[in-house]
Structures are given as C-alpha cells and as structure tokens.
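Narrative summary of target 7.
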Amino acid sequence: MGEGHSHREHAQSAGGRHTRSLAWTLALTATFLVVEVAGGLWARSLALLADAGHMLTDVAGLALALFALWFAAKPPTPAKTYGYYRVEILAAFVNAVVLLGISAFILYEAYQRLLAPPEILAGPMLVVAIVGLVANLIGMRLLHQGSAESLNIKGTYCEVMSDALGSLGVIVAAVVVLLTGWRLADPIVAAGIGLFIVPRTWRLLRQAVDVLLEGTPAHLNLEEMDAAMRTVAGVRRVHDLHAWTLTSGRYAMSAHVVVDSLGEGDRLLGQLHVLLHDRFGIDHTTLQLESEPLVRITQRRDASPRVDTR
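Modeled conformation, tokenized:
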C-alpha cells in the first residue's frame, strides 16, 4: 500500500493579495459613514439612513475581512494543520447574516413610514446621496479585481455595490420629493434597497455555508477528475474521491487509487499530483495507492460488506 501527500508551501490566500485595496476602501467608507448618518438624521430620510445602515455593515464587514486576511496568513500549527484559511469564509458568513438582519429592519421601518410619512429635507438628502454614490463607486473600483478571486472580498464588494445602488435610489427619491413633494418616495426607496440586497446576500450565505460544510467546489466535477486520474498509465480505478475548499482560490482533495503495481508508487504519485494541480488547480492532494480497493471499516461491520468502488 502506498500513500502520497502533496501541498504547496503555506501561501497567501486569494484575498490576501488585495489587502491594500480593502484598507483603502475601509478608510473611505468609514469616513463617509459619519457624513451619511449625520445627513440622514438632519434630513429625516429613512432612505438615507437605510443606505447608512448598509454602509455601517460595510465598515464592519471590511474591518472583519481585513482581520480575517491577517489571521488567515498565520502559519499552520500542530493543532491547526490547515492554518487559519477558514477565518475568511467565516467572515463572509457573518457579513451575509448581518446584511440580512439589516435588510429586515429597513423593511420594517419602511412599513412604519408608509403608514405615517414624516417631513423630509430633500435638498440635504440629495447632496449626501450624491457624495455617497461617488464614494461607493470608488470602493467598488478598488475591490473589483479581488471580488473575482476571494469569497471574503466578494462579500464586501457586494455590500459596497448594494450601497452604490442604494445611494442611486436615494438620489431618485430626493429628486421626486423635491419636484412633487411626495414623501412616500423615501420609504418606498428604502424598502427597495432592503429587498434588492436579500437575494444577493442569500447567495453569498449559501456559498459560505457550502465551503464550511466542505461541499465539492462548484467548478470541479468529480467524475471528470476520476476520468482524468485514470488516464495515468498504471491507474486502474479511483474511489473515495473527495474535493473541498480550504478558502477562496485554494482547494484540497483526497482519494484512494487502485494501481497495477505499488512498486511504481513514486512515479504514479508524482504524475497524479502534477495532473491534479495543473488541470484542476488543486493545491493540497492526499492520495492512497492500493493494489486492491479497501473495504471500509464501517462496511466490515455490516452483515453484507461490499467494496466501495466509486
């Protein structure tokens, strides 16, 4: 029986390559948050305060994301053999949960204001919303590249994008109030902001949960991996094949490989490791070579044991 284990050195995660962009976005967002809260209270605009609520979540999310990236860079230990990569996924999960809570609160407040719309200072509301839109667009530009590589940064990018659309909605509401005096535009836009973010946040939450539950990465097809491994000369069969995500952009897999000869173990392991890394982007592979497929221990306890040949 042969066993092989391969991984690249503890490397920077996908999100770690964009720490500076996150830091600049955090500074920009935190500065404008103070302005937007003050403006929302002054103008008595729920739409503006709703956008500020999302921006508050941005600040917390960006700070948490930066902390997660710093923590994820810590090297593995005997107690944490994979290191702390999953902290990034936990950060994305927390961001999604908080966003859903903020959205629910905004919808509740919008309903209350539809019943009794207050007076609104549309002029200050419009000015603050325009400044907010500019700040959000700059933040989106800073995070755009990283959002395609890291689930953690994708979470913060989605939050900043939702704020940009929220600011745009506040601008529309302010213009409507200025031109027509129709105050219901404010809570209606606030409700629209809350509803807009829910499906996107839900998708982010599902992605984070899928990683935490060690689901197969969406871009990997286990049947295709199985077939590719069997193209290596000397490999007869593959079973107990598993693939999972360590953190965004870093993947791991394990499998039992039935081979013609264990004497060729070094060659087989080398070729399989190269294949899995180059074709499927697997950073961490654990392969067990067998001359015959092993029967699972749990199955040996069954009345009718069988061989797992998946």
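The longest strand covers residues 235-247.
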